[in-house]
Amino acid sequence: MNSTQKINILLIEDETEQRQILKSILIEQHYQVSDVGNGEQGIKLIQQQTFDIVISDWKLPGVDGVDVLNTLKQYSPLSSFILITAHGDASHAIATIRAGADDYLLKPFDKTTLLFTIKKQLYAQSVERENQTLKQQLKQRKQLVDIIGRSPLMNQLFQRIEKAAPTNATIMINGESGTGKELAARAIHQLSSRSNSAFIPVNCAAIPESLAESELFGVEKGAFTGATRNRPGVLEAANGGTIFLDEIGELPLLMQSKLLRFLQEGTINRVGSTAQQKLDVRVVSATNRNLILEIEKGNFREDLYYRLNVIPVTIPPLRNRPEDILPLIEHFIQQCCDENNILIRQLSKPAIKLLLSYHWPGNVRELKNIIERSVLLSSEEIISVEEISGLEFEKPNQSSSYLLPENGLNWEDHEKDCLLQSLAYCNNNKTQAAKLLGLNYKAFLYRLEKYSIC
Ligand SMILES: Nc1ncnc2c1ncn2[C@@H]1O[C@H](COP(=O)(O)OP(=O)(O)O)[C@@H](O)[C@H]1O
Ligand SMILES: [Mg+2]
């Protein structure tokens, strides 16, 4: 039922005269009324169409009110059942309410009572519908709850995902490695109307260039030596659902133009076939690279970039959202203990402090690894700071990934900047900051003095 449609009422009453009177009262109120004189006909109608309300006499020839009620609850659980019963039969009324009727009318009843009882039911239905919508929204939020995060930055991300997910727009997720890009892509799929269809993750960096086309678009038997059978590609496998193209920046240029054609035309053909297939696939991609730079260098097609990036989603690095570290630690401890059937472990206060002050170059993935290893290796219920610091943390990116700006730099300003930034990342913890720059502690202190820092 919606507000522009008429309320649909089924009236079941074997006394013709009474039925006519009730019917005319209801029609006068602009309700849409179907009326029948016995339970059998009533049940048939209930099986064929949906009524907002069924008003039925209790004593009917043949099948009686209880059978009608049971059919209604089976076929249309949200509809209301109002029972009409003779004054002396109040015990029936109570029994029927117990059996699931929503209300009853004792004969003789007046027009006001009848209309009031109907209004009450319509109101109850609107509350129930609202309730169901809220429950649905709650369920959706719960699915996002798998992504742990309570920082304002993550809340912004959740809002963006909730808004973007139900659309069909392409989404490009940007973020450093380990920030949860795949998790976000799965959440987008879960929150879309495609959630019952496939989610196919594809790591573009892992496909050898020579196999990329058949991997993406499929291959027809005999297309090349080795193609011994027809094989669908990942795009076909994702039909009706979502494809997640991870590390999209690694896709070879030739594949980029083929992917662009698919995005423009919505069709593919398998390698070795001229038959075009229309596909309905939502494309979510992810990268930890700056694709604008790759475009400038000629490594990524600009037109494809705009096609893929209709809605950009950025996941902030963990070091920019320290509020999330503690909830993530708790989440991973719980998860790891559950999965391995071990009693719940705890971190000592100094261990927590150490983790809170770390800059997490490997982001959430690194934190997860550290927690898992410490939980599994520790023999004590409380994990000490020594056990944590004995673990190997990820090495900061090696210098080869650093690009010298084209117009050069001022070495001393640069060095001072590195020192200050490393201290800021590590909450002024000099041991950590030295590690971050790959310097031993003494060498680090020497440089701090050189620039009169601290
Ligand atoms: N916010 C988060 N809440 C819970 N787990 C997370 C979160 N972010 C990342 N993870 C976990 O960290 C690991 C790395 O996440 P992933 O989505 O593969 O990162 P990316 O694709 O950005 O490299 C996965 O095990 C993932 O489940
Ligand atoms: Mg990933």
Automatic annotation (TrEMBL):
<keyword id="KW-0805">Transcription regulation</keyword>
<dbReference type="InterPro" id="IPR058031">
    <property type="entry name" value="AAA_lid_NorR"/>
</dbReference>
<dbReference type="InterPro" id="IPR011006">
    <property type="entry name" value="CheY-like_superfamily"/>
</dbReference>
<keyword id="KW-0804">Transcription</keyword>
<dbReference type="Pfam" id="PF02954">
    <property type="entry name" value="HTH_8"/>
</dbReference>
<keyword id="KW-0067">ATP-binding</keyword>
<dbReference type="InterPro" id="IPR027417">
    <property type="entry name" value="P-loop_NTPase"/>
</dbReference>
<feature type="modified residue" description="4-aspartylphosphate">
    <location>
        <position position="57"/>
    </location>
</feature>
<dbReference type="InterPro" id="IPR003593">
    <property type="entry name" value="AAA+_ATPase"/>
</dbReference>
<keyword id="KW-0547">Nucleotide-binding</keyword>
<dbReference type="InterPro" id="IPR001789">
    <property type="entry name" value="Sig_transdc_resp-reg_receiver"/>
</dbReference>
<dbReference type="InterPro" id="IPR002078">
    <property type="entry name" value="Sigma_54_int"/>
</dbReference>
<feature type="domain" description="Sigma-54 factor interaction">
    <location>
        <begin position="147"/>
        <end position="376"/>
    </location>
</feature>
<dbReference type="Pfam" id="PF00072">
    <property type="entry name" value="Response_reg"/>
</dbReference>
<keyword id="KW-0597">Phosphoprotein</keyword>
<dbReference type="InterPro" id="IPR025944">
    <property type="entry name" value="Sigma_54_int_dom_CS"/>
</dbReference>
<keyword id="KW-0238">DNA-binding</keyword>
<protein>
    <submittedName>
        <fullName>Sigma-54 dependent transcriptional regulator</fullName>
    </submittedName>
</protein>
<dbReference type="InterPro" id="IPR025943">
    <property type="entry name" value="Sigma_54_int_dom_ATP-bd_2"/>
</dbReference>
<dbReference type="InterPro" id="IPR002197">
    <property type="entry name" value="HTH_Fis"/>
</dbReference>
<feature type="domain" description="Response regulatory">
    <location>
        <begin position="8"/>
        <end position="122"/>
    </location>
</feature>
<dbReference type="InterPro" id="IPR009057">
    <property type="entry name" value="Homeodomain-like_sf"/>
</dbReference>
<dbReference type="Pfam" id="PF00158">
    <property type="entry name" value="Sigma54_activat"/>
</dbReference>
<dbReference type="Pfam" id="PF25601">
    <property type="entry name" value="AAA_lid_14"/>
</dbReference>
